[in-house]
């Protein structure tokens, strides 16, 4: 699927049962349907190993293929967490967003304070 040195992005689906440092990552690859002359998403599930990078289920991560396979099923290393779950950032503006709308950070802090005062009452 990927040659050595190439990077792939994917979403963490689950952790390995026997080994806590292994993760199942879903990657999307575009495949051409020659009859319709249209590209469609094809899901691939890859097992990856995390060393110093700690990630959670749902995070978007960057993977790199291992140079040598120690375990046949685990083929990639996790290089970094690109987007943690719940912290969606627009790559162009650098602002946090929810769906198609930007989150106003000043209003967000005011709402958090208001909720905290309501809970204390």
Automatic annotation (TrEMBL):
<dbReference type="GO" id="GO:0003735">
    <property type="term" value="F:structural constituent of ribosome"/>
</dbReference>
<dbReference type="GO" id="GO:0005763">
    <property type="term" value="C:mitochondrial small ribosomal subunit"/>
</dbReference>
<dbReference type="GO" id="GO:0032543">
    <property type="term" value="P:mitochondrial translation"/>
</dbReference>
<dbReference type="InterPro" id="IPR012340">
    <property type="entry name" value="NA-bd_OB-fold"/>
</dbReference>
<dbReference type="InterPro" id="IPR039193">
    <property type="entry name" value="Ribosomal_uS17m_metazoa"/>
</dbReference>
<protein>
    <recommendedName>
        <fullName>Mitochondrial ribosomal protein S17</fullName>
    </recommendedName>
</protein>
């Amino acid at each position: 699927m990927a040659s050595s040195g190439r990077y792939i992005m994917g979403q963490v689906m689950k952790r390995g049962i026997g080994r806590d440092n292994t993760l199942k990552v879903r990657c999307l690859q575009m495949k051409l349907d020659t009859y319709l002359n249209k590209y469609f998403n094809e899901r691939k599930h890859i097992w990856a190993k995390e060393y110093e990078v700690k990630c959670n289920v749902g995070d978007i991560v960057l993977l790199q293929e291992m140079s040598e396979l120690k375990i046949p099923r685990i083929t990639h290393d996790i290089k970094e967490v690109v987007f943690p779950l719940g912290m969606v950032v627009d790559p162009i503006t650098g602002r946090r967003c929810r769906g198609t709308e930007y989150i106003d950070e000043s209003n967000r802090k005011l709402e958090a304070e208001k909720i905290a005062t309501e809970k204390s009452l």
